[in-house]
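Predict structure. Chain length: 367.
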Amino acid sequence: MPGTMKYVGNVICAVLLAAATMGHCTTAAAQADEPVNLSELYSRIDEAIRQSPQYVAERARKIAACADSLTAAADTEARLMLADRLFRLYKSYRNDSALYYAELCVSLADSLRRPGLSGRYRSLLAYQCSKSDRLAEALEQLRLVDKSALDNDGLVDYYSAWMHVCGEMGTYTQRRGVCHYYFGRQNLYRDSVLMVASEGSGEWYHLKVDILTARRLYQEALALSEQWLRKEPDHTHESAYAAFYRSMVYSSLGNHDQACYWLGKSALDDIKCAVRDQASLLFLAERLADDGDLDRARRYMEFAKACNLAFCQRLRTYQVNSVVSVLEKASQASQSRINMLLVMAGVVIALLLAALLSLYYRLQKRR
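Prediction complete.
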């Protein structure tokens, strides 16, 4: 989840709103799905977490090999290609390094006098800034882009970055008018992305599933999600991304097991890819805490928290909320256990006192 999930906060809000307003017919549709083995999936996640140092070491090996090639390269075109590769290796792994290589790509594209390519990398840099709460920096980069020089891929990245920034601005403001303004702009940029994104691309599927879910066309969203999952290779960050959005559809349908399954599938794929920008595992931890599986919820929360802090030096707002939610539920359960123990202790003490009093009266009668 997941990556490294785009527009997580806004999607969650839309999903929760849809879930609150749906009727009993959607529940009937949810019940038609095949049962899933959550215990087996959680065991696989537990094992992946134990093996995570190996996955991280493999990612680090790829990064080191690519960095060595970049150091040895003398040709600017080759350096740009390698810097691009390093940016993509880092973008869901370590944010500060991703920002560095995105800036290097901008500089190399400028030296080659390719404003379209420079604009595309500025857009990617802006998106990377936006998803780590550096909104002012994101806006600064986007305003430097020469939109007229962008090719189709560049426009997808440019409009996607604007869409994300506007969504973040709308989410975190406390002023209703400003919120409506930025969400309105986000919708316009969403339309722009759909106009230029290739049908069947990850961006196209993500937005289509998002829109169908918001319109409560859940069966159509699931059908499109099925196509998306078949398209992406298994155990990749892309498959984790697709699985995350499938879980959001099931969440809207009120299908608890399927929502947990696809969140788990998303988290599993991201762990195996050494993705540290974790969302799916945090959301799964919240659901497990709601279900009373507090030990596992806390383990998943702690692992996801460590991953996210390795990706970015501070937790983002939605991550803090998820961590606090799990901790609060664990604290409430612990307090409930303490209260129960106190009640039981009180009962035992009362019974002992009653027995002692009974024994005392018997001894008095014998005298």
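Summary: The longest helix spans residues 317-366.
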